[in-house]
Design a protein that fits this description.
The structure holds 2 protein chains of 2 kinds.
Chain A: H1 15-19, H2 24-53, H3 63-97, H4 106-125, H5 144-147, H6 152-180, H7 193-223, E1 225-227, E2 230-232, H8 245-279, H9 286-299, H10 315-343, H11 352-375, H12 377-383, H13 387-417, H14 423-449, H15 465-491, H16 532-549
Antiparallel strand pairs in A: 1-2
Helix pairs in contact in A: 2-3, 2-4, 2-15, 3-4, 3-6, 3-8, 3-13, 4-6, 6-7, 7-8, 7-9, 8-9, 8-10, 8-11, 8-13, 9-10, 10-11, 11-13, 11-14, 13-14, 14-15
Chain B: H1 2-23, H2 35-68, H3 87-116, E1 127-134, E2 137-141, E3 147-149, E4 151-155, E5 160-165, E6 173-175, E7 184-186, E8 192-196, E9 202-207, E10 220-226, H4 228-242, H5 247-262, H6 283-292, H7 306-318
Parallel strand pairs in B: 1-5, 4-10
Antiparallel strand pairs in B: 1-2, 2-3, 5-8, 6-7, 9-10
Helix pairs in contact in B: 1-2, 2-3, 5-7
Classes of the chains: A mainly alpha, B alpha+beta.
The complex binds copper (II) ion (CU).
């Protein structure tokens, strides 16, 4: 194994070399940093939302601004944080994990990143547009999205088009890379599970993003536009002209439900990498986990209308979508049981990365289980569009994805920078985030059951105040947790170097130096299992044992 | 083994105690006042049995493993047991959820007719009310032409059919009174149906559940359930008043339609103040304004009957907002 621990000379570059880089590792880091920036911005919007709802008749922001905040908070968390930060992990890790020197198309990769950064800027700056930012929610249902005045909605559409182009280019790049650049011996069943999850993530992006593009283009045309003297004004979703407003919802959720898994599957992938290393065990049921990833990806495209149980679909359709949604629970359950079994009879170490992974497990279970209520359509008639749903998807997307991302950040930080994050600060941010998260989102289940709808700018019902105040206090605790993480990053800038492989991990990215040189590897070993480094170490031990005996 | 047994014991305890405990307090949908809400609530409680059992099982195992298999005095990088998987276990935890989900789906289908179907009408027949969601108010039309806004009156013990829609020029809203059943969207160009049959008198509150614009949070609805005779009297009184420039409907219209944006006294709220405006004193101008809208103001009164416009004007004349 390589021994160099200083950063490679080619990396001692200036700002320009970062701006013009086509190195997948630097692009990965750019993706992650930019997404974290958007995470902080969208998180601050969340804090304002919570502040507004802390008490009945709150008056921190006016209702229009509130709707803008809700819309951009949701849109950014999905499109500027969830999808791209996992693209960042994918970019950094996939070539390293499969023993490649870079992505298949490095310049296309750079284009993906810059499109993402540009699309994100468009969305954030849309607050300054005439009429403010988009106000129709991240789902942007027509006719509301078509009737809102000003340019916010148009910029929202533009931004999503740019981000879609970015994701499609990125997805093609991942697929070609994974298909063609795997190390010798790395068959499909020896591929790291994180790479499996990025593989399914990429296929899903390719399959469903074009449908979103079509749907929001129809909104754009319905809103009307002028092109060199030509006025275009369609009415796809305008019932007065024979259009159908529900049609958009079908298209949106055909994209929107898989989108959840586009974000969640790579988060699952991170967990499947972290748990074995800190349990000193192979993952339990490798094939079952890989298979369930593919199964979830496939079924996620067949369940969309469980987001539409209240639009008045025929009962037979609602029954189908209930059963299809329940089918997805089975492979998801498989994963959870396999992760638990990975802990069984392990040698567990509780570093921050592991704490976040275990926190993920305990929270994601709750999000998965409350999903069963929502899949049962008559129960959904009661819970749909209430705070119960808000709680549910924050348990899956925040509890699931954000905890997994922090697990990944703490785990791969020494890989990326050759230095450790501070463990005490890491544990502090974990416990604050875990407590703050549950404090913020658990009471929201109860608010939903009591009849509080989502997306209301304020409420007069004082019996909702208690849980809302609790939730707001929780959001502050989470704010402190994120602050602790930021401090950790700053403090650890000059932390001690920890060598190439501080965790004695199992996968190929740890075979090279930390951080790796621009070309990643001088040589790559023949891969004999999903844990090539475990095999190498065992062979090394055996050889030494044999030598000792001789 | 002992750990497994105690875990199983805990799970069965939860199974027995859960629904009873949930039904207290706010861990289940609000106290129902109609059979459909009742059916939804019992489905919710039935599902809860399994949800809680699985929750306890998984979190219990997680905590048990964390305690039992922590490192203690072992070397940091010492191997744990090198177990790669076990087919029988995989089959077990694939089939077990299938069985649970099958039970849940079966229970839902058993409860479904009681939730979905309007019950047979009794001696006093049934009532049909047209519900229209509009930015940012609810309008109700009774079979005899009576119009009401935001507060619906209904008789106790009589099946009430609601046809729910929104005008073509409006946006999507969602009708939801939690104690009287699930929600149903009011969608332009589409007519949906729901129902309730209140089992007691009282006022049941709810509000629009689909983001419909700046005033979404203020789009409240309530159903006042009255004894049958009292309801009949109210309906008749309103019908007669409506033909003679009804001030009651005018007041409801002012409060439900105008005041949400302009304030109860016309002092301004979401939008500008209108108190003292000359328009309010000119019936013709009021009609033009509400029928057609102006700039950011939607055509809140498009499609209103002449009676409703007259009622609003009568009210504005009798008690001009902000005094005269
Ligand atoms: Cu509404």
């Amino acid at each position: 194994m390589a021994v160099r621990t200083e950063p490679h000379p080619a990396y001692q570059g200036k700002v320009v070399s970062w701006l013009t880089t086509t190195d997948h590792k630097r692009i990965g880091i750019l993706y992650i940093c930019t997404s974290l920036l958007f995470f902080v911005l969208a998180g601050l919007m969340g804090l304002v939302i919570r502040l507004q709802l802390m008490q009945a008749n709150g008056d921190v922001v006016d209702p229009q601004r509130y709707n803008e905040l809700v819309t951009i908070h949701g849109t950014s968390m999905v499109f500027l944080v969830g999808v791209p930060i996992l693209a960042g992990f994918g970019n950094y890790l996939v070539p390293l994990m499969i023993g490649a020197h870079d992505m298949a198309f490095p310049r296309l990769n750079a284009l993906s990143y810059w499109l993402f950064a540009f699309g994100g800027a468009v969305l954030m700056l849309s607050f300054f547009a005439q009429g403010g930012a988009a106000q129709a929610g991240w789902t942007s249902y027509p006719p509301l999205a078509e009737q809102t005045a000003g340019h916010g909605q148009d910029l929202w559409i533009l931004s999503l088009h740019i981000l879609t182009a970015s994701s499609i280019a990125g997805a093609i790049n991942f697929l070609v890379t994974i298909h063609n650049l795997r190390a010798r011996g790395m068959t499909w069943t020896r591929m790291p599970l994180f790479v499996w999850s990025i593989y399914v993530y990429a296929w899903l992006l390719l399959a469903v993003l074009p449908v979103l593009s079509a749907a929001i283009t129809m909104i754009l045309l319905d809103r009307g536009l002028e092109l060199g003297g030509w006025e275009i004004q369609t009415s796809f979703f305008d019932p007065a002209e024979g259009g159908n407003a529900v049609l958009y919802q079908h298209a949106f959720w055909f994209f929107g439900h898989p989108e959840v898994y586009i974000i969640v599957l790579p988060a699952f992938g991170i967990i499947s990498e972290v748990l074995p290393v800190f349990a000193r065990k192979p993952i339990f049921g490798y094939k079952a986990i890989a298979f369930s990833t593919v199964a979830i990806g496939f079924f996620s495209m067949l369940v969309w209308a469980h987001h539409m149980f209240t639009v008045g679909l025929p009962i037979s359709l609602q029954a189908y979508f209930m059963i299809a949604s329940m089918v997805i629970a089975v492979p998801t359950g498989m994963k959870i049981f396999n992760w638990l079994a990975t802990l069984w009879r392990g040698n567990l170490a509780f570093d921050s990365a592991m704490l976040f992974a275990l926190g993920f497990l305990s929270i994601f279970v709750v999000g998965g289980l409350t999903g069963i209520y929502l899949a049962a359509f008559p129960i959904d008639w009661q819970l749909h569009d209430s705070y119960f749903v808000v709680a549910h998807f924050h348990y899956t997307l925040f509890g699931g994805v954000v905890f997994a991302i922090f697990a990944g950040l703490h785990y791969w930080w020494p890989k990326m920078f050759g230095r450790m994050l501070d463990e005490r600060l890491g544990k502090l941010s974990f416990w604050l985030l875990f407590v703050g998260f549950n404090l913020t989102f658990f009471p929201q289940h109860l608010l939903g059951l009591e009849g509080m709808p989502r997306r209301i700018a304020t409420y007069a019902n004082e019996s909702w105040e208690g849980y809302n105040t609790l939730s707001t206090v929780g959001s502050w605790v989470m704010g402190v947790a994120i602050l602790a993480f930021v401090v950790n990053v700053l403090v650890s800038r000059n932390g001690p170097r920890v060598g190439n492989d501080p965790w004695r991990a199992y996968t190929l990215e740890w075979y090279t130096t930390s951080p790796p040189p621009p070309h990643n590897f001088d040589d790559v070993p023949y891969v004999t299992s999903p844990r090539p480094l475990y095999d190498l170490r065992r062979r090394l031990r055996e050889r030494e044992g044999a030598r000792g005996a001789a | 083994m002992r750990a497994l047994l105690s875990l199983a014991g805990l799970v069965s305890l939860v199974l027995v105690a859960a629904p009873a405990a949930l039904a207290q307090g706010s861990f289940a949908p609000v106290e129902p006042a109609s059979p459909n809400a009742e059916g939804i609530r019992s489905s919710y409680l039935f599902v809860s049995i399994f949800i809680l059992a699985i929750f306890v099982l998984v979190e219990g195992a997680l905590i048990a493993f964390i305690l039992k298999y922590r490192r203690r005095r072992r070397a940091r990088f010492a191997d744990g047991a090198q177990i790669h998987g076990q087919t029988r276990l995989e089959i077990l935890w694939t089939t077990l959820p299938v069985v649970v989900l099958f039970l849940i789906a079966a229970f839902v289908f058993i409860e479904l007719p009681g939730i979905k179907n309007v019950p047979e009408a009794g001696a006093s027949g049934e009532l049909e009310i047209r519900v229209t969601g509009r930015q940012y108010y609810w309008q109700y039309e009774y079979p005899n032409g009576v119009i009401a806004i935001d507060r619906m009156r209904a008789p106790v013990g009589v099946p009430v059919r609601l046809t729910v829609s929104a005008p073509d020029s409006d946006v999507i809203h969602s009708w939801w009174i939690p104690a009287l059943g699930g929600k149903i969207d009011a969608i332009p160009g589409r007519v949906n149906e729901t129902w309730f049959e209140a089992d007691r008198t009282g006022v049941f509150e709810g509000q629009c559940a689909e983001l419909c614009g700046v005033g979404h949070a203020f789009m409240t609805a309530s159903v006042e359930v009255l004894p049958e005779a009292e309801f009949a009297a109210w309906l008749e009184e309103r019908r007669q008043a409506q033909t003679t420039g009804d001030v009651a409907l005018g007041e409801e219209t002012w409060e439900g339609v105008c005041a949400k944006c302009h304030g109860l006294a016309g002092q301004g709220a979401l939008y500008r103040a209108v108190a003292g405006s000359a328009v309010l004193r000119d019936p013709q101008a009021v009609e033009t304004l509400v029928r057609n809208g102006r700039r950011t103001m939607p055509a809140v009164g498009a499609g209103w009957t002449a009676e409703q416009i007259d009622a609003l004007n009568a009210y504005l004349k009798e008690s001009p907002p902000g005094g005269s």
